[in-house]
Q: What sequence folds into this?
């Protein structure tokens, strides 16, 4: 794992997004009317949220990809990473329509009995599962669920074995950013957005973006994804 290449990739990702937002924000200097500037900031909010969500999704993907490339066995990874890696297996075992292959011809159509059979089968395969190579399914884990709310952000952090309360102080402002973006997109917010209001949500978005960069780099550098890191 080349940590410096990963850090450079994350920094490049945040840099071009900041440059684009800065370019769009600088256009305010050419708008004379304060009312028109407030109206223009509505489009800035939409773009800011887009870059905030886009960066987070890309950063999480970079982190998951870096771990997947390590080809770790489940026995070596922390519990959150293992559980995430086994997401599809868990889904199969929780499916009430999926019968155990061993009992398929003799068990009655009994959901509880089938569930027990799947549990037995899972325990029988634990040793095999511990030797499986970690493969984080990014399409399942890194799901923004239409809106990257603070709750969704915490959920993704938790699934990837990262401190899920890392951005607690910025959650209120991010909620404001999301609310304003949705109101603009849905036509609810017809008025403008003041310079102060925009500045607050921009700072909050950048705080999380930069914080996520350092969090991911630090987790990879300290091998926080390994089970040994918790010993």
A:
């Amino acid at each position: 794992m080349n940590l410096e290449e990963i850090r450079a990739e994350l920094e490049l990702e945040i840099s071009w997004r900041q440059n684009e937002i800065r370019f769009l924000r600088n256009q305010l200097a050419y708008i004379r009317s304060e009312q028109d500037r407030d109206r223009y900031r509505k489009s800035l909010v939409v773009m800011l949220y887009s870059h905030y969500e886009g960066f987070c999704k890309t950063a999480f993907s970079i982190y998951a990809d870096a771990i997947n490339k390590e080809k770790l066995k489940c026995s070596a990874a922390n519990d959150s990473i293992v559980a995430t890696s086994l997401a599809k297996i868990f889904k199969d075992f929780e499916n009430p329509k999926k019968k155990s292959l061993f009992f398929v011809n003799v068990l009655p159509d009994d959901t509880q009995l089938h569930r027990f059979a799947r549990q037995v089968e899972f325990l029988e395969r634990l040793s095999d599962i511990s030797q499986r190579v970690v493969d984080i399914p990014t399409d399942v884990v890194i799901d923004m669920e239409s809106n990257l709310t603070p709750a969704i952000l915490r959920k993704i952090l938790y699934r990837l074995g990262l401190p899920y309360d890392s951005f607690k102080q910025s959650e209120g402002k991010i909620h404001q950013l999301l609310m304003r973006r949705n109101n603009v997109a849905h036509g609810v917010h017809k008025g403008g957005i003041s310079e102060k209001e925009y500045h607050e949500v921009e700072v909050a978005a950048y705080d999380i973006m930069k914080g996520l960069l350092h969090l991911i780099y630090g987790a990879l550098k300290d091998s926080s994804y390994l089970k040994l890191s918790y010993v």
Residues 102-108 have pLDDT under 50 and may be disordered. Residues 34-69 form the longest helix (36 residues). The chain has ten helices and no strands.
